[in-house]
Amino acid sequence: MNVSQAEFQNMKEEIIKDLIVRLMDERGLAMQEAFDTVYNSRLFEKLSDPKTGLYFQSSGYVYSYLQDELNQ
Question: Are 43 and 62 contacting, i.e. CB atoms less than 8 angstroms apart?
Answer without folding.
Answer: yes
